[in-house]
Design a protein that fits this description.
Layout: H1 4-14, H2 28-43, H3 48-62, H4 66-82, H5 87-104, H6 109-122, H7 126-143, H8 146-162, H9 166-178, H10 186-199, H11 203-213, H12 227-237, H13 244-255, H14 261-278, H15 281-341, H16 347-409, H17 414-439, E1 446-447, H18 448-462, E2 470-476, E3 480-481, H19 483-504, E4 511-520, E5 523-530, H20 538-543, H21 547-558, E6 562-566, E7 571-577
Helix pairs in contact: 1-8, 2-3, 2-4, 3-4, 4-5, 5-6, 6-7, 6-8, 7-8, 8-9, 8-10, 9-10, 10-11, 10-12, 11-12, 12-14, 13-14, 14-15, 15-16, 16-17, 17-18, 17-19, 18-19, 19-21
Length: 579
């Protein structure tokens, strides 16, 4: 687990370089206020930050105040870096600020170099990040700025940790702790250092450091969030000592909606992993579900935002293209009117205009083609996100199945073993759907024939059924159904096929199991039949109190369908539903 990114980002917020250089200047107080506001709005992700930074720049230039212009340029760079995500524009503003410092001999280069280092660090450009951190450290040492030196040590430790250069990472983190200045920054270093030891599986060294990172004091606002480091280290070290209070704090922090969804999801995941290590599987399942719920909400928001951004971009480009085409048509009409007026002298002019407009149309068509390609690429990106969601859900279901397998090994009661096996079959039927969706080109619907074939074979394998003894006949049309239909349908088939394999056929007695799905007019019809012992009538079915039958009835109701027991040799169920 690598948590160094969030810690670095929180540290970056602490590094806002609003300092005392501006004191004594006529416009200093007003400019300082504007710069403070701009940085605050940038950290909140608001576009107002750029407006205020430009106002600060105008004020500095009007008053011939170079250092004020440096601060304004840095504020604009922060906006482009954090709000609009335009690293190129951010770099341009930072380098203008560097040039101003060199031209006017302003002692602020160390701060700008550090800001550049943070920008390249957060965009994973480690080579440039290291270069600018070293320049910032050199100049900070030259002018005795111990606070900036400490911040350079912290971020360089995090940088080398990201590159798995553990020796240098530990060296810089320890050097930052050795500086007796701004001790509240040490808690961030303790968290990064503990994570560094965890990555090296040095849990004995990690746990004491992480206990410091989670200490509840006023200078450590992230104490509760750092608990997921400690939970992870404790679980990996197989150490449950002194964890009662820690676990209670972690649960409260995870439930606190003032924390961001990413932090809450990490807390829930590590709580679940720790509880699984201690053998409390019931609570582990509960907190794993909490983690999955928040994780899916994060993915859903990301996917919705991508779709909204794409729709807005597409509509804007579409309107712009239409406006350009209308303008072009108006220009053509005006040119034609003039051509008719000067027909006698227009031979060469007409040829030139035809060539000009042919070129313009060709360029317009090229532009529209590029826009179409870009839109198709964006759609593909969304499809990749959806496949990733299905893949993650399938993997999480596999984790649940693995936990059931672990629990199954320690159970001897036959009914309990049977219940766990049935639960595994139900989970695997849902996992098969998610696997089919992320492997399928069409993310909206999948082929029901392929899915049902795979599902029934999976059930036969689970019950170790000899297919030479039990003949399987699957007659399913090539119907394409969505997830809302396939999930209940798959669980119905799972219950009925499992019931037939368990109860319909006597030991070593041959038999036949048939499954058919077809569409008749506006309705879909599913038949599942066996030639085994059978049921007497529908009344016997209604009197049954089995959990499996209750599930079948519930899922038939979810499909707005009907369940019928047909009079045949053996047992034949017919389910009709609309989609």
């Amino acid at each position: 687990m690598n948590f160094s990114k969030p810690i670095l980002y929180l540290l970056f917020i602490c590094l806002v370089p609003i300092s005392g250089y501006a004191q004594g200047h006529l416009a200093a107080a007003q400019l300082q206020k504007l710069v403070d506001q701009s940085w605050e709005f940038s950290l909140q992700g608001q576009d107002s930050a750029l407006v205020i930074a430009r106002a600060a720049l105008k004020l500095a230039q009007k008053n011939d105040y170079p250092f004020g212009e440096v601060l304004a340029r840095e504020s604009m760079g922060l906006y482009f870096e954090m709000v609009s995500g335009d690293i190129e524009k951010a770099s341009e503003q930072y380098f203008i600020a560097i040039e101003l410092c060199e031209t006017h001999q302003i002692d602020y280069l160390a701060d700008i170099f550090h800001t550049l280092g943070v920008m390249f660090h957060t965009t994973d450009n480690y080579e440039n990040a290291e270069r600018y951190y070293k320049q910032a450290l050199e100049k900070a040492k030259a002018k005795g700025d111990f606070l900036l030196i400490k911040k350079c040590f912290i971020n360089m430790g995090s940088l080398y940790s990201s590159q798995e250069d553990f020796v240098r990472a530990e060296k810089y983190m320890q050097e930052s702790l050795d500086l007796p200045i701004d001790p509240h920054l040490d808690y961030t270093t303790y968290a990064n250092l503990g994570n560094l030891y965890v990555k090296q599986k040095k849990f004995g060294k990690a746990i004491p450091v992480l206990l410091k990172a989670t200490k509840e004091v006023s200078d450590n606002p992230d104490a509760d969030l750092n608990l997921y480091f400690l939970l992870y280290a404790k679980a990996m070290a197989r150490d449950s000592s002194g964890m009662t209070g820690v676990l209670a704090r972690a649960k409260r922090a995870a439930a606190d909606e003032r924390h961001g969804p990413r932090d809450r999801s990490l807390l829930y995941r590590n709580i679940a992993d720790y509880l699984a290590f201690t053998g409390d599987y019931q609570k582990a399942f509960y907190y794993r579900d909490k983690y999955i719920q928040i994780y899916e909400e994060i993915k859903e928001k990301q996917r919705d935002q991508v779709v909204l951004d794409m729709e807005a971009k597409y509509e804007a480009e579409k309107k712009d293209a239409q406006l350009k085409l209308l303008t072009l048509e108006a220009e053509k009409k005006a040119q034609q009117t003039r051509l008719y007026s000067y027909l006698a002298l227009a031979g060469l002019v007409i040829a030139g205009l035809i060539g000009f407009f042919w070129y313009k149309n060709r360029e317009k068509n090229k532009l529209l083609t590029r826009q179409k390609v870009k839109l198709e690429e964006n759609v593909e990106e969304i499809n990749l996100l959806l496949r990733e969601v299905h893949h993650r859900v399938k993997n999480n279901l596999q984790v649940v199945t693995s936990l059931l397998n672990i629990q199954q090994r320690s159970i001897t009661d036959e009914k309990a073993l049977e219940a766990i096996q049935e639960s595994k079959n139900r989970i695997e039927s849902m996992g098969l759907i998610h696997r089919s969706f992320y492997q399928n080109k069409n993310l909206g619907e999948i082929n029901s024939r392929e899915y049902i074939q795979n599902l029934v074979e999976q059930i036969f394998t689970s019950y170790q059924t000899d297919q030479d003894r039990i003949q399987l006949d699957i007659q399913v049309a090539d119907l394409y159904l969505d997830m809302d239909t396939l999930v209940p349908l798959g669980l119905i088939i799972n219950e009925m096929v499992s019931n037939s394999l368990k109860h319909a056929f006597a030991a070593k007695e041959p038999g036949k199991l048939s499954i058919a799905l077809d569409k008749r007019e506006e309705k879909y019809q599913l038949k599942i039949a066996d030639n085994g012992a059978g049921l007497e009538d529908m009344a016997q079915l209604e009197r049954s109190s089995s959990f499996g039958l209750k599930m079948v009835k519930a899922f038939v109701k979810k499909l707005n369908g009907s369940l019928t027991l047909l009079p045949t040799d053996g047992t034949t169920f017919q389910i009709e539903f609309k989609v």
